[in-house]
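Tokens in:
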């Protein structure tokens, strides 16, 4: 899915729950990813998009289907002798992303030609990247195994502003006030719709949006697309 308006393009390279999600955002002057699940590097190359053009990656949270492609991208940039600065933004406390960064630097700290900079985000933090302003909002999403709840996961949704255009990405989230604020009046909302309507109340409260909840949320935006759909 590709969406363009007045100089900004948003392309969902791939998005299936439990497998991978990767979203490419581009303008004439900048490019970055929101999430980088397994296969992100392959998806970029398949689109004839040079990973060296990326300024960085915003991660919504640390589950594998959203960040398993990080190591591959960093390794590719190193192998291609990429220079400059590559930034990684993630929710504060996101252990998984931090662990991948640590592993990469442990192996290649002295032979990496680019500068790797990380930013741990809190609720309400704003980032400016080129002419795009990115607002990070904490959303509700728990760690789980086969739907069994474990503990809350640090998780963010993002709202992008570019020349008066607004784009919302919910990340993985159960219904919560902040995701409503992210989506409200957005020109485009990318809304996760992982759950069928017939699931336990516990899963609805702490894990994901059902199809009906996602559709209702979408009515708050001027345009919306479902992402993170069930893999089957």
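Residues out:
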């Amino acid at each position: 899915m590709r969406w363009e308006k007045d100089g900004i393009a948003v392309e969902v390279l791939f998005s299936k729950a439990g497998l991978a999600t990767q979203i490419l955002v581009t303008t004439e002057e900048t490019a970055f990813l929101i999430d980088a699940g397994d296969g992100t590097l392959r998806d970029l190359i398949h689109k004839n998009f040079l990973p060296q053009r990326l300024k960085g990656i915003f991660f919504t949270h640390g589950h594998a289907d959203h960040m398993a492609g990080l190591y591959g991208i960093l390794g590719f940039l190193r192998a291609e002798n990429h220079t400059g600065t590559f930034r990684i933004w993630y929710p504060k406390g996101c252990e998984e992303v931090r662990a991948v960064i640590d592993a990469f630097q442990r192996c290649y700290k002295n032979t990496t030609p680019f500068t790797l900079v990380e930013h741990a985000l809190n609720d309400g933090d704003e980032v400016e990247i080129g002419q795009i302003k990115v607002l990070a909002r904490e959303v509700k999403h728990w760690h789980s195994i086969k739907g069994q709840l474990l503990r809350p996961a640090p998780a963010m949704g993002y709202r992008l502003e570019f020349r008066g255009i607004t784009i919302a990405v919910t990340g993985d989230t159960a219904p919560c006030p902040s995701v409503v604020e992210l989506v409200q009046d957005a020109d485009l909302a990318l809304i996760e719709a992982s759950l069928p309507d017939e699931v336990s109340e516990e899963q609805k409260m702490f894990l994901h949006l059902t199809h009906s909840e996602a559709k209702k949320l979408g009515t708050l935006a001027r345009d919306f697309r479902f992402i993170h759909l069930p893999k089957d």
